[in-house]
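Appendix B, record 7
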Amino acid sequence: MRLYIAWACIILSCLLFNQTIHAQQIKDSIVSGKELDEVVVSYNKWEQKLNEIPNRITKINLKQTRLRNPQTMADLLGTTGEIFIQKSQQGGGSPMIRGFATNRVLIVVDGVRMNNAIYRSGNIQNVISLDPMALEDAEVIFGPGSILYGSDAIGGVMDFHTLTPKFSNGKKVLISGNASTRYSTANNEKTIHADINITGKKLSLLNSFTYSDFGDLKMGTNGGQTGYLRTQHVQRIGNIDSVFTNPDPRVQRFTGYQQRNFISKLRYKPAENWDLQYGFHYSTTSNIPRYDRLIEYAGGSLRFAEWNYGPQDWMMHHLQVQHKKAKGIYSQARLTVSYQDYEESRIDRRRANNNRRTQTETVAATAINLDLQKQLNEKQELFYGAEFIYNKIGSAGINQHIGNGTITKVASRYPDGSTWSSLAAYVSYKNKLKTNLSLSAGLRYNHNSMKATFDTSFFKFPFTNTSLNAGNITVSSGLVYRMSETWQMSGVISSGFRMPNIDDIGKVFESAPGVVVVPNVNLRPEYAWNAEWGVQYNRSQQFSFYFNLFYSWLHNALTRRPYQFNGQSNIMYDGTLSRVEAIQNVARAKVWGIQTGWQLYIHPSFNWQTKLNWIKGEETDDIKNEQVPLRHAPPFFGSTQLNYEHKGWSLQFLADYNSEIANKDLAPSEQAKTAIYAVDPNGKPYSPAWYTLNLKAAYRFTTNISAQLGWENITNQRYRPYSSGVVAAGSNLIASMRISF
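Structure tokens (predicted):
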């Protein structure tokens, strides 16, 4: 009933709004705002005009991205001004989209989903495996995307398109490419990038490579609390772990790491209506120190001597075949076959302990996607397809004595050899009911299976294996009403879901000192409903504005709660008596908020742009079974920038800002993380407000040569973004150069 009422309100508001401003819009439409009609996005997995899509979509501006010079793909998402980024360590970046994060938001690259069966509810940094310097196009779809992408797309979808091989117009073979380099002072970053495209009329080859070396990150001087400072660190001298005073406590010792990215693509066009492309992606890092664990204290002393994420290796092969034809059951068809090989590990050793524990996980992920588009007539389009996904998980654990090298097996993080699969079919329909009114609706059926066998060598599980078979239907329906060429209004109601994965059902790990999470084999899917209303105004090169209001409900939510293991509420884990918890379907959550922004052209070369995000949410507390602040709902945040372009110059003055989250508004799980939060006058943890002022400049010397300079955090603020373990960079000078040929 609530859904019908919501739809009625959306339609009524559209009609009332149109009647109120119709007369004025007749005048406004004399000056045509064409941008809403011209912007193309890959919604429905095919190119669509933005003014026909009911969802809020942000298309990432690559020109401004190059000016901002983000170091990682997580930083690039942060430049949108609409996605909040959490970092537990410098080599990280967990996007928060409308109060959802981690395994409730989906990452898609070149049409292939990256999310796999061990994506966790805790913060994840898989998005940094993607290379921001090899990006051709990207967009963020806000709200559930389960119709097209299945499980995990509850909060939104981040859809990335990497560099694509181009074809030459004539018979000549052409060679083109880019080379760039960058240096940043706050972490002594050194990055080099090169890509080359060898093109023929029917055959094209592209290669891209990027290498980055990030040193220890230095925080700011002004504002912030002294508790943010890195006053001590552990270093092993001889055979002894000793605690040393940090000579410069603003330098966050053990935050540096290195990263390499490589892409190779081969594209073949045997005929005008056929397009074949093979792509190979490879990304790897060095060990990445987990900074938030390295600053934990126990008994008045630093708890860990080592805590690293091992190399984050990601490899993907994908073959894509696309065909177009005028008649038949489809107008366009795309078959994508992909294979991903993913490896991560956790390496930790407590201070004054000679045993270094390493837990290693691998995922082999195979997927087949068939997506079809049929132009029924001038007004109607049909999108439909099917998907198959299969994940196989490898998991192992060892202890190595760092003195004599002796290796012994320990409990793995997940059930080794477990599998997770998904089979789905979807259909989506678009109808231009009138010249100014479009309807979109969709339906998807998903069936998921999972099998796992538990090793009882280290834990006496009351079970040895488990399996899950569950199906579900998701739906979506939306309207876009274009009152004129400059005004647009939309409303959408959609559902989303997430199937329990291997991380939910089979994980054994220490979530916090004295708390151990154990498997629970009795889990069910969690579901979400989302209602959204938005309005946009755009008068090209003069003024644009958007306003989106949304509300989401999450039912049967998977969350950690106290649990009994073999009838016991506390067990010994890693030498510590620990409270037992497990993931359970006992929570509910609701998220609501506003996204708004505008761009005002003061002069054809000078404009002012602002984006603001206000998000609130509640979820069921892990212990008290009452509604408390939502963990992944960020503080009010936004950005304001002044942009100037003239001849070869591009200048940007930018302010980023966040509001405070008081202790009473922190989720209980965040209140327990005393090591990473500031302390209020009552001695309780909270997240202070912060701002940064930034200046960026670029100059194009010739068509092929350009240089960029930047000064970030000009006032050298010391701040730690909400829920982050690492303190953000202080004053940072960036210099880069790009050459095209």
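Remarks on this record: The chain has one domain: 2-740. The longest strand covers residues 576-603.
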